[in-house]
Amino acid sequence: MSTATGTTYSVKIKNNGTHPGSFALYKEDPDMMNPDTLILAWLAEASANGQETTISWTVDYGFYWTKVKSPEPGTTITSTASKDADLKSNNSIGFSKLTGGTYVLSETSSAGHQNILYVHQDETIEVDDNAFIGILIDNQPVVAKRAQPSTITEFTPHPTYYLIYGDIEQGAVIDVSEYSDQALKITFDGVTEHNVVLNERNQLHLV
Length: 207
Prior knowledge:
By secondary structure, the protein is mostly beta strands.
């Protein structure tokens, strides 16, 4: 079950850490171990010792595509083109390459199961073009997956988020394994906000 569409959520963080950086949220993906799946620092806010930082967002979905020349940690992903989506009546979209070489998203439609977002890639897709598809939440890219010809890619939004702290830019590709010991798992089960502290040992805790 995903967090409620149209609802605003927030995480308020007290920074007692030892160095300036950014708090960032990312979401896991079932296919995250695939090298053609890029996990992104979805939202990020700079912070320093003694500051209180709030990250807030509204759960509104979208599809997007982009080209990624260097799909590796640190690369920043931005949307080239996007379409609004929802988990019921506009949860499916087509993706194709036109004769002139431009990639396009079709209009959205209702297909498959609710609460899953589908991207139908047709036979025109060229893997070597480095075209990536993904979903947006609150107009920001969450994950990117390399487009493949004649393939349907599914995105299943989950209500679980992970908070990390470091030298991180919003939209940057991150190596999740690098933050496995630090990441704070956050879920919204009947609540819309959480309070977190980064302690003097640079560890994140819910309070």
